[in-house]
Amino acid sequence: MTGVAVRVPATTANLGPGFDALGAAVTRYLYAGVAPRSGEERVTTQGEGASEVATGDDNLVWRSFVTFCDRTDIAVPDVSVRVRNEIPLERGMGSSSAAIVGGLALARAVTGASVGDLDLVRMATDLEGHPDNVAPAVLGGLVACAQTDDGDLIVRRAQPADATVVIAIPANRQNTHEARAALPDALSRPDVATQAARAAHVTPGLIGLWPVDPRVAGDLLHEPARFAAMPASGDLVQAMRADGIHAWLSGAGPSVAAVAADNAALGRIEACAREHGFEAAVLRWDLAGTIACRDDVCAFAGSGGCAACPRARL
Question: Which of 108, 114, 215, 240 could form a disulfide with 247 if both were Cys (CB 3.0 to 4.6 A apart)?
Fold first, then answer.
């Protein structure tokens, strides 16, 4: 078990008008691995938020690990968990989703339980509450989530069009629960029709069927209320859209995400982010989703020594 480790990507949800439906994975990661239990701490963490997260049995990665064992009727092994996190906390980049998926995926790898990715998404949704956050963390790429009338979760994955993804990250944070509480309870019928039309425009555009027009890529459900609460983020989104860039509030914010099809657009996005006081993290779409490496078997290369192996990051 000492050689088991997982890598989970950060995510950006909504992608404009896809509230609670669309999400995509990006190349920032949470790494987690197990070791024989020693000492009092259940979890040791390095990187983003290391001084803030719990180190005992109430740690989110560990609680998710235990949940997987409980759901699969497997005894919880007495191990310690090591975490290295690159995903900023409470910035709309799926840090909680990555922790949940990391714990579940690590337990699957450690126990060898026969649980498919869709069932892992369902478990993670039960814990996190929103499939658009956890599904891309499990599957990678661009993910669309919907529920049937009887509550069954339908998930579809596509490969986004090749592009550079910029996450503009501010210094301040935004609690997701507080951001969700500010949303309206309903939209008017014209607004519902507009929202649906915009989602229908943006989704094929993200996989390269046509260029996304930022003038019809905005959201009517969550952005107005959140822009009022996070005016700096709203100003940045509007400035980028006015410059012809497809930009959106990443998750519940306050980070802003944007896609650049070429170097000229990338330069404009970075400059705009700096002008508004945001750090510009230049990333790519993550297409692999969560990977797990056991001992000397690399999830990418099939043997040891891969530069991307999560074990090497712990």
Answer: 240
